[in-house]
Structure formats: C-alpha cells, structure tokens
Amino acid sequence: MKRLNQNINSAYIEAMNRLGGKQGRKRIVAYVESYDDVFFWSNLLRPLEDGKYQFEVMLPSRTSLCKGKKIALANELGDRLGRCMIACVDADYDYLMQGCTPTSAEVCRNPYVFHTYVYAIENFQCFAPALQSVCVMATLNDHRLFDFEGFMRQYSEVVWPLFVWNVWCYRYGGYKQFSMLDFYHVVQLSQINYYHPEQTLDRLRHLVNGKIARLQKQFPQGRKTYKPLRDELLGLGLKPQDTYLYMRGHDLFDGVVAPLLGGVCEMLRREREREIRKLAEHAVQMQNELSAYQHATATVEEMLRKHTAYTECEQYRRVQADISHLLGLLDGGQPDHADSAQTAEQHAEVGREQAHGDGQQDDAEKLAEQVDG
Hints:
- There is one protein chain.
- This protein is mainly alpha-helical and 373 residues long.
- It has 2 domains: 4-118 and 317-372, no CATH class; 123-309, no CATH class.
- It contains 17 helices and 4 strands.
- Strands 2-1-3-4 form a 4-stranded parallel sheet, sandwiched between helices.
- Helix 2 links the parallel strand 1 (26-31) and strand 2.
- Helix 12 runs antiparallel to helix 13.
- The longest helix has 31 residues, at 249-279.
- It is flat.
- The two termini are 31 Å apart.
C-alpha cells in the first residue's frame, strides 16, 4: 500500500503555500542525502532567502535511516520534485559522466536537482585558500609556515592527466581496471617534506607518469578518446590547477589534506608551547598556560568539518546561482512542469549529449553504483 506521505510532492507544498496568503513566505523543501549535508546546504541556501521564499532542509526518508543519493533521488522522491520541492546532492562523478548513467542523467538534466559541481562537500571543506584559516582555528597560531594554495595548485596539475584517465575508465567501462580507489593509492600523500615540497611533488609526478604509461598500454583505444574527453572536462569548467576539487571527497580529506595540515599544525602547536615555556615566570604559570592552550585547540579533522571559509569558492557560488535562477523562474510564474531540457541547460550548463564507447550502456547500472560510491 502506498504510504500517505508519498503523496506529498511539489504541487502539494505549493498548495500549502497558497494557504499562507499572498504576503506569506513560500516554503521550498530541499531534500539532502545525509545528516552531514543538512548544515552545508542550510548555510548555502539561507543567503538566498528573501521576503518571498524560505527553505527547509530535510532528509528524504522519515521511515528509515537509509541515506545516500539514490534515496534522495529515485527511491524516495522520483517525480515528486518540482518548484517547491528540490533535491540537493553531491555531484560525485555524475556531473563528469554527463548523463551516461541513469543517476548521472537525473543529476545533470533534472532542473530540480542541484549538485555541488565538485565531487562532494568534503572537497569544499578542503578548499585550498581556506586551509591557512583552518590551521589558525586548530592551533590558535597565525604563523604562515606553508603555502597551501601553491602546493595544492601544483599537486592538482601533477595529478590532472591521471585524473582524466580515471574519468575515462568510468566513461568507457574500464573502472574495474582503474577505480577511484586505485587512483587514490597513486595520488595520496604518504610522505611530505614541508621544507622542500618540490621533492614531494617530484616523487608524486614519478608515480603518476608511471601509472599513465601502464594505462596507455592497457587501453590503446584511449589514443582516440582521451584528448576529446580531456577537452570536454575543460569545457565543463574543470581546471588542471583545481583537480583536487573533483577527486573523491573522503580520499582527498583523509589521504591528502588532513595529513598535509596535520604536520603543519603540529609545528605550530610546538611553536606556541615553546613560546609559553619561554615567557612563563614560574612552573605553575607555565603549566596553567599550557593546559589552557591545549584545552583551547582542536584537531585538524574537526576544524576542517566545521569551517565555512569555502563560501568564496567559484563552484559554491555557481550552485547558489543555479538556485537563484530557480527563484527567478518562480517569480516569473513558470509552470511546475517546465521544459526540463531548457531549464537544465540554464541551471547546470550541461545539456550536451556525448557519444561513448561500444558496450558502455550494458554496464550502466553497475557503473552508476561505482560512481555513486
């Protein structure tokens, strides 16, 4: 039997809004994937509210603890999305797939599905210009010991060719031979020389070039399709210096940025503690000051998840612009069942059909599961 709450759709919310009168603020329900997403999307949507519209962020299922993109889109919402009921999800690789899987088609072409453009929320949390602020939050020490922006830019340029190969494998059915996990094993930072970061990057470049050489031998058909895919990704707004924003979020968080910041924060804490020991007039004062300082500091991981300094990120503002466009359509009185192809082109700029390799559609469902992971 169909549950009663499954009848709640965008038209129902719109009818409820009419009961509030012409002067009342219209409610737009925004469904997200998990608990962690509520804070992020709430912060993104609040600045867009005005005297006419307000957002309510919630999980799609009130009957289970199931989470994830498939729950937020197909399983729970389906065709219920509309002007007053939207879905807000991580882009994952679905944005880069450009509709070659069912989930990617929904993410890229449904005008009421909004995505992060970058892989996930973790990528925003690792936004390079914000990393110095994260160090200050974690250590209460503003000494700039490391050029995070410069390092992440060079890191991204080094891994960019291999990243394109990873996307190529998901586009053309070779993801089992070179998965996101395989990509991560190559590009993670296991050893970091903070005093000579160029040595760390040189070692990474050697690993990347070696893997690319093996992939070229393994997939000779890539000679014809690699460059067109690379050009397509550039056309979607990807930049080699921003590659880190599009790789799998928790890999970036756990294997690149957290270790990078961890070492710097450890040096900053030791520096502050040495200063306290030097300035303390006696042992009791030193112990009290050290205890107070250690109590006030926090872990890198905690501060990475709590900061909001990524709001200046170009992709973040692009998401806000997409949702502002929807509000503009509402002001213009566009019907709930607008021409979705036209609207999707306006809000995501991704309405281009691409030709893919033979046999790719046969793996569409399996590929969708891999991409969503």
